[in-house]
Amino acid sequence: MSSSTTTLLDAQDIYGGYGGADILKGTNLRANADEIVVIVGPNGAGKSTAMKAIFGLVKVRTGKVLFQGEDITNAKPEQMVRRGIAYVPQEQNVFPSLTVQENLEMGGYLMTGDLKPRMEKVYDLFPKLAERRRQPAGLMSGGERQLVAMGRALMVDPKLLMLDEPTAGLSPKLIDETFERIKQINAQGIGVLMVEQNAKQALAIASRGYVLATGANRHEDTGPNLLADPEVAEMFLGG
Amino acid sequence: MNDILQILIYGMVLGSVLSMGAIGVSMIFGILRFAHFAHGDFMTLGAYIGLTFIGVMGLSPWFALPAAMVGMAVVAVVIDQLLYRRIRRTQPVILLISSFGMALILRSLIQLIWGSENQTYASGIQFPWRLDVLGGLRIKPDHVWIVLISLGLVAGVHLFLTRTRMGKAMRAMSDNMDLALVSGIPAERVIIVTWIIGGALAAAAGVFLGIDTRLHPVMGWTTLLPVFAAAILGGIGRPYGAIVGGMIIGISMEMSTLFISAAYKPAVAFAIMVMMLIFRPQGIFKGTL
Ligand SMILES: Nc1ncnc2c1ncn2[C@@H]1O[C@H](COP(=O)(O)OP(=O)(O)OP(=O)(O)O)[C@@H](O)[C@H]1O
Ligand SMILES: [Mg+2]
């Protein structure tokens, strides 16, 4: 297991859910600044719930979320953003009636100072968005919307980028492209924690991976090791 | 022909009043997710605040207008903080019923403070301009001002919503509340600005109605239905649609008097609203915001 730099995110033994029975039953997740960490698991495993719990959108009943060593358990989303955590939800992750540019501006709402340089950085990363900056996000294709969503999150210069299924519904070509971009983002020193259904490809670029089932860790290893594990392959990777 | 033009002007005046109310209803629905039933009584209260400024300070109605708008903006924020904020996280139907209660409270207060008889802003008769080119069409200066100021206010709201960070945050919140929170947009601050704008424009609607007709404690309540119709026609949650919705409803209501009794004017608004809800619930501007 790699732990070359300081731990950015450390979620320890999380229990919690939506008010009823706990969905998360002892989830542990860690991510470093130089890592791409991938969470895989069957539908309903609690992957999205785990992301929301880390970001303060789902109540953590017991357990701790540490960010750069500080306790941020159940902090408000605004606090998360200020600390440098950006989160892209699985669904409805753009403002449809706002233009691409306005979506980016909203991502940087809390930032003081000129947003232009940040925006240019996002446009450099996603040139497609630069061409479409005046178009409402709701009129764009699924792939373009995912770029807008990621761009919005990057506007705060995050230390940690949390992505929930960034390639869902994309064509194979766009999936490849999205993973390339994620690697590029990570290369800039931004830690990435992402949930992925395209497990094979995601684990291939992952520093580490977690297999989550019924709200708890089932496996944890480096990407290549998880890919090679016959049990994991059989359970989640379609053989 | 002359009659029709004359009625068209009345329709535009009524349309301006309705638009001012409908923008607020539409924004409040978009951001707070409930139909604000006290909005008609916000209009009434705005009109009476204007009356007090006219009476106490001797202002003309046009100078009382900004004062009434500021006063009503403050009242709207206070009501939100005292009542609506406390039940923000409950179901929308609870907010709707509370706003209905607030409507009754405001109306009673208005009767207590200003009495229940008809009142007017100005005594005396205003002489209309006669346009001989248009076959002796008569236009009251008041009517021209009402339409022009309304257009100016709508343009102002439009610029605010499209050019300022706060305005964009309001649109973002009405688009996707959860994502707005995730982005760190301060929801409570946006809500307060929504009430400021909604309250100020409601006061404008009330003062215009007072200038055009007379003041009465139920003047706003009886206008609420066409205001809602205008908001639905323009597309709920879409402030720019509200002016078009307001004009269509206002003109239809006035035009209907050519064919049926004026007593049926609200029924015309109601009929248009029901047809919209059945055939085009997204409003006439679906997907073009
Ligand atoms: N808003 C909610 N309120 C109540 N229960 C919810 C809510 N969202 C999800 N759940 C429940 O929590 C459990 C885990 O859901 P979650 O969305 O975290 O799964 P997931 O692993 O992300 O699945 P998927 O791969 O389909 O995205 C499911 O049983 C689901 O029904
Ligand atoms: Mg999910």
Describe how the helices and strands are arranged.
The complex is a heterodimer of chains A (239) and B (289).
Chain A lengths: L6 E11 L6 E9 L3 E5 L6 H8 L4 E9 L2 E2 L5 H7 L1 E4 L11 H8 L8 H10 L1 H5 L10 H13 L5 E5 L7 H16 L3 E5 L3 H7 L2 E6 L2 E7 H6 L1 H7 L3
Parallel strand pairs in A: 3-8, 3-9, 6-7, 7-8
Antiparallel strand pairs in A: 1-2, 1-4, 4-5, 9-10
Helix pairs in contact in A: 3-6
Chain B lengths: L1 H31 L6 H19 L3 H22 L9 H23 L14 E3 L5 E3 L1 H23 L1 H11 L1 H6 L4 H26 L11 H11 L4 H17 L9 H15 L10
Antiparallel strand pairs in B: 1-2
Helix pairs in contact in B: 1-5, 1-6, 1-8, 1-9, 1-10, 2-3, 2-4, 2-8, 3-8, 5-6, 5-8, 6-8, 9-10, 9-11, 10-11
Bound molecules: adenosine-5'-triphosphate and magnesium ion.
Adenosine-5'-triphosphate (ATP) binds next to α1 of chain A.
Compact description:
The complex is a heterodimer of chains A (239) and B (289). Chain A has 239 residues and is an alpha/beta fold.
Question: Key terms for this structure?
Answer:
heterodimer; A: 239 residues; alpha/beta; Rossmann fold; 2 domains; 6-stranded mixed β-sheet; 4-stranded antiparallel β-sheet; 10 helices; 10 strands; 36% helix; B: 289 residues; mainly alpha; two-stranded antiparallel sheet; globular; binds adenosine-5'-triphosphate; binds magnesium ion; membrane (chain B); transmembrane helix (chain B); transmembrane (chain B); transport (chain B)
Explain this structure to me?
Chain B: It comes from Onishia taeanensis. The complex is a heterodimer of chains A (239) and B (289). Chain A has 239 residues and is α/β, with parallel strands linked by helices. Chain A has two domains: 165 residues, Rossmann fold, CATH 3.40.50; 66 residues, no CATH class. Chain A is built from ten helices and ten strands. The longest helix of chain A has 16 residues. Chain B is mostly helical. The two termini of chain B are 35 Å apart. In chain B, β1 and β2 form a beta hairpin. The relative contact order of chain B is 0.21. Chain B has two domains: 157 residues, no CATH class; 72 residues. Chains A and B meet through α2 and α3 of A and α6 and α7 of B. The site of magnesium ion (MG) has 4 residues of chain A, from α1.
